[in-house]
Design goal:
35% strand, 7 helices, 2 domains
């Protein structure tokens, strides 16, 4: 009877937990849907017909950029507190511009109340590379004093391969909204629904391997310009390999940890491809003209950052809302690669790893001229061809285990030797 009673209580507790989690998920979803509502009629559209004249002076690096439109608004991040409470954890304005070739520029600004500091995050892509610069008006010195940034101070920047911003989840969310539809239509065709192998750009992609194990299941709108209506990053266990050398997109200090190989082996036996990491939903859009609709309200839910399918996909951990307030369609021309003065660049296009060697980021300075070509003299001089031997701490651990085993054996046999000597 006791066994039956305990089994009954166990199953009832599981049912209760499932009901509570389902109710919490429904409550959070309702809250997020209300937060993502935008009055489309109040979204302003700035348009002025004018004829552009291409400047006759020298063409800037990367060429000229003529945006099809610029969307301005706010992106907000919400964290989950308790079972059904939302907490606004981040909020900052953005400006996203895209042209007919799906080249793009992004600017996000943020204010730090503690430091009383303004900073800007700039991203831009010419289709082959993605560039990033972070500019701040203040910095913290070695004595933890807050100081104004002098004009000669270098701005940290980076260069990535491809047109997708895979190192920043906020930039990834904005790229999905304004560029993702056309990118997927060019890759897979304009089918209303499809699946594409795509890194989960709503997660941290250089520290954790699970963003690289995803398929993106999506539906495209039937608008003249394709937009993603809904999408989900879903685990595909066929992409999981136990060979850590295959994960060259992840930083070396993460890959060499002992827990990663064991994690990969455990995940290889997972027999489900239904684990949802992040979901995307286009809530509202604004018709600018008969050939163009622009997203003005987007809801993104991060369901579970843990690669195990142990948590229900209904459990929401983090969420973004994207709200557009202004759309500028007035034709204007600008350099595709903006200039920022002195930039200290971390070039991540050369990451490489095999069983014995690896190559991390290439570091070099630049001043208003980005190193676009992979074979540029500056990049080669910075060490694009150099490889570093992978240092493992396994020999030290082996010595530790041997020493520990010898101590245990000594502790076990010492009393026996003492007894034998005493009898003699």
């Amino acid at each position: 009877m006791k066994i039956i009673k305990w089994n009954f209580l166990f199953w009832m507790s599981l049912v209760w937990c499932f009901c509570v989690s389902s109710q919490s998920a429904e409550s959070l979803t309702r809250q997020l849907e209300l937060l993502s509502v935008v009055d489309v009629d109040k979204v302003t559209v700035v348009h002025e017909d004018k004829t552009l004249e291409i400047p006759e002076n020298e063409v800037p690096q990367g060429g000229w950029f003529i945006p099809l439109y610029t969307a301005e608004g706010t992106i907000k991040g919400y964290r989950i507190q308790g079972t059904n409470k939302l907490h606004l954890s981040s909020e900052f304005p953005f400006s996203f511009s895209v042209d007919e070739k799906n080249r793009w520029q992004l600017q996000m600004t943020m204010y730090d109340k503690e430091l009383e500091s303004h900073s800007g995050y700039h991203y831009f892509s010419e289709g082959t590379n993605t560039f990033y610069v972070h500019i701040s008006d203040k910095f913290v010195d070695r004595e933890w004093n807050v100081r104004d940034s002098p004009p000669e101070m270098s701005n940290p920047g980076s260069v990535l391969s491809g047109q997708i911003p895979i190192r920043n989840s906020y930039a990834g969310a904005l790229w999905l909204s304004f560029c993702g539809g056309k990118y997927l239509a060019e890759q897979n065709g304009t089918n209303s629904s499809d699946v594409h192998k795509l890194v989960d750009i709503l997660e941290v992609t250089d520290v954790y391997p699970n963003p690289w194990w995803c398929d993106f299941h999506y539906q495209l709108s039937s608008f003249p310009n394709p937009l993603i209506s809904t999408g989900s990053f879903i685990l595909n266990t066929n992409y999981i390999t136990t060979d850590v050398e295959d994960y060259w997109q992840i930083r070396e200090e993460t890959v060499k940890h002992d827990n990663l190989p064991s994690l990969l082996k455990e995940l290889k036996i997972v027999l489900t491809n239904t684990v949802v990491y992040d979901t995307y939903e286009l809530r509202q859009c604004k018709e600018v003209n008969k050939n163009l609709k622009v997203p003005v309200s987007v809801l993104i839910k991060s369901c579970d950052s843990i690669p195990y399918p142990a948590v229900s996909p209904d459990i929401i951990w983090f969420s973004y809302t994207i709200e557009v307030t202004n759309i500028v369609t007035t034709p204007r021309i600008m350099p595709l690669l903006p200039t920022f003065g002195y930039v200290s660049v971390e070039d991540q296009r050369f990451w490489y790893r095999d069983k014995t060697h690896f190559r991390g980021s290439i570091l070099y300075p630049c001043t208003n001229e980005w190193e676009v070509a992979l074979d540029s003299p500056k990049v080669i001089a910075a060490g694009s061809q150099s490889l570093y031997k992978r240092i493992s701490d396994k020999p030290a651990k082996i010595r530790y285990y041997i020493s520990f085993t010898l101590l245990i054996l000594t502790a076990l046999f010492f009393p026996i030797l003492f007894l034998i000597k005493k009898k003699k």
